[in-house]
Amino acid sequence: MSNNNLWKTKLAAWLHDPAEKALILLRDKTGHEWGTVKRLRDELGIDYGDMLKQADWYASAADRPQFPLEKDGKRYAAWTQVDFADKPVLKHPLTGTAFNLGKLDNIQPEHLKKVSEDHFRSLIIKGEGGTPDWKKTLLNYWRFGSDSPAPELNHLWQNLPADTRIPDHSIWAHLDIVSAFAGAMTADKDNTPSLLSVSFGPVQGFIAEARSTSDLWAGSHLLARIAWEGMKVVCEEFGADAVLFPNLRGVPLVDVWLYDQLKTDKDAKVRFEAMDWFKQKTDTNPLFAAALPNRFVALVPADQAKDIAERIERKVRMFVKELGDASLRRILKEIGLDETDDSPYCFTQLKAQLAGFPEVYWAAVPWSLAIKGKQADTTQLHPILSSFYEDSKKVGFLDSDAWKVLQKDIELDGAKFYTPNPGVLYPALYDLLDRVAAAAKSARPFEQLKQKGFRSSLNGEREWLTLDRDHLGWNAERRKKEGTLWTKLAAKRKSWVKGGEHLDALNAIKRVWPSLFAGEVEAIIGAKINRYVVSTHTLALAVTLDKLAEVIGNEPKILHKLAELSRKEDLLSQEAVALPLALNRKVSVNGNFEAIAKRLPSALDADEDGRLAAKLKNILGTAPEAYYGMILLDGDKMGAWVSGDEKTQIPYQDCWHPQIINSGDFKKLVDKNTSLKNYLQEKHQTSPARHRAISEALNQFSIKVARFVVEDCFKGKLIYSGGDDVLAFVCVDDLLPAMTMLRYLYSGKPVPAWIATKLDDRTSKRFDSKNGYLLLDGKLLLTMGEKAEASCGAVVAHHQAPLGYVLRQLRAAESKAKNAGGRNAFSLHVFKRAGGEISVTDKWERSDATDKNAPELLAKLMAMLARNDVSRRAAYHSLTWLKQLPPQPDPDMLKINLAHQFGKQGSKNDRDLAYELAAYVSDHCKENPAGVLENMLMVAEFLARETRHAQQEGVPA
């Protein structure tokens, strides 16, 4: 089949149902298949043929049942008819929670059809001679079709369901999947699609080799870019809808590719150039977010799967090779050498060290394993899948109760309600794909790289790049004396390499990547990008600067003293640094203070004798903050969510519209039909739409939500957000609320009141979260839902602590949250400069809704200890007698003693907090409540001490 016909077929598939279907069913006499989409297909010169029916058949069977017609075969049974405009209810695809949109019947069908038709007609792109360009039109439909075509539709349009009776997945998800099936079937000689899984590595090791915040960002961002280079092979050949997950719609890197594809159309060009990634001129530009995971799954033609995977491998390795070459030539140019000269030994090293990078693993599973004739059949699939199970009698989905129900027809009053076809075996095929992919990783070939000279400063594994091979034998003293490629670069470009550092090929790429990528973005948007790297020292100082910004207007004496200090120390000659975005908004209100605030970190970095720090302490009444926080948040049991298990799946009936479930006629059918009853109670299996929903939720979280929380709501810098993972720096006073808010918005839960009070009016008005959905900046976003959980490791460290050490402790904290905390937990560790560690590991929330939760109790305890009328002795004296108690003291004694101490050092009102704390540890930490309470006091006291305005007299620091 010609490539042109492929795009024609996919476009026809994407137009098999109208977007407005949910709102016109039962309200429009024309019928949804003969209205707007019929006229659009006619205008585009495309037909809806048998291949498209088969694609729709597969996609629909995987996601939802058929519904029975009346005995005349012309009308659907009355109990199946839902007027969505009258009863617009969405069901969360991962939890089954109902989300009522309110009445929509004020939107008239004729108006809606006209708006929709005009919208899609405006997205048609024509080529030479005025004929439709099917490929560009499909790409345009895929990207912009879900954008609201009228103000009154707002966020409703992007969430319209594919089926009003089972409103658990959007029309856009259904159109995408049908188009993906149609493309894969059409391009295969036997009309057979295949699931293809591709992953790239290594991940943790590559990111972990870091000595600065810039290194961390570069490692994670570069891996995301490598993943996109692989996905792009599929997108260019079969369209972005062919990638099942991650869902690529709205991903900035994908938008750049689409912009290049579609910018010849002036309307498409205008749409792209109105986006944030085109307009923003700093590294808050969404293109700087590492928002793609290192694995993807696509629907491709079965006879091309191997070739596509091999092309992906060649493409990503060529990308890295070219990137390495460009990076090395930039380095040589920077130190004044001829970058066109290939003779230096570093080019030989570069080739050897980049060989085989990245690691690429792939697996493919054809649908032919699930087909006999045109029917679903497991004759081939079962024995192959069973070879991956220890117990061949329990082969996942194929030996589940669900398959016992789903493999048979279900009839209601003589009409077909459910008939299995090969699409329904998606869960088993995906299970096989997952297991084959895991086997491919475990069997990867390994070739040892021989390295004889001194190794890279960051990993000790690969030789550092050198102009002359003999230099690899030089010791540190000789390198410094005679000069190397890296000593010369350190003298020229400190942002690329620090004195004494010598880097290998991969780390050299990471150091140059920020500059190269900024250049790419500048070439796209036609403007210079100002990239800001927030240092750990600046993050620490941001707490002090934030408090100064709050009082500077009411206390002009402080600003006067700071201005005087600035003149004496010549602060304005220092380099201005980047501040966290939320803080930058505050300090920019006062231009005089802003100039000082942005230069204090640089000045203090250069303050070797501590003179400036002492003067600043005298002005502030306390030493500047020296600690910062890091957050590593990770979704729990993501493998189970993607593959589906008993705990993550929901019954089929929970996906149905409440009108049907509550219908008297339907209840009678259930009572007399055992097959239907079993079907409704069985768990909803993995499906393409479920995978799309997971991907969409993770996309929204990584692209929009994580940055909103870390950088808009709090004083932080997002380093990485890919799917369910978040790595971020945050000021120490914002650490606890930031990590907790991330956790709640991950699941679309209401944010606790104690966090809401810490947000300013600007940010608090921008969002609302409940029932598994998040309304952010006027757009309704799907989240992972209230059943989804996430664990978090958090550390507080001194800004001079080695970043590599802090990262190791951060990962250990996350591991402790998942293991010792039992998942859905956090583990917060404080590492003191003088030595010693204190920590709290606990659940985010307890099952009893009346209970106070650990984060809230910590926050209340911190607030109490930070008050000027409370002595820190409340914590110290409590710790003294707590250490003398047995591990399981009498709960009443614990309450009375703690309340006495709080009341003595604070106020009578603080006794209530003492009761809450004592009750919490007694009820939920039965093994060692005294020890847990001691840890909570120590952590809260440290964090409160670091965030108060001034030290209290007579209290040890």
TrEMBL record:
Keywords: Antiviral defense, Nucleotide-binding. Residues 195-323 form the CRISPR-associated protein Cmr2 N-terminal domain. The keyword Cell inner membrane does not apply. Residues 627-826 form the Cas10/Cmr2 second palm domain. InterPro entries: Cas10-Cmr2_palm2 (IPR054767), Cmr2_N (IPR038242), CRISPR-assoc_Cmr2_N (IPR024615), CRISPR-assoc_prot_Cmr2 (IPR013407), Rev_trsase/Diguanyl_cyclase (IPR043128). Pfam families: Cas10-Cmr2_palm2 (PF22335), Cmr2_N (PF12469). GO terms for molecular function: nucleotide binding. GO terms for biological process: defense response to virus. The keyword Nucleotide-binding applies. This is CRISPR-associated protein Cmr2. It comes from Thiothrix caldifontis.
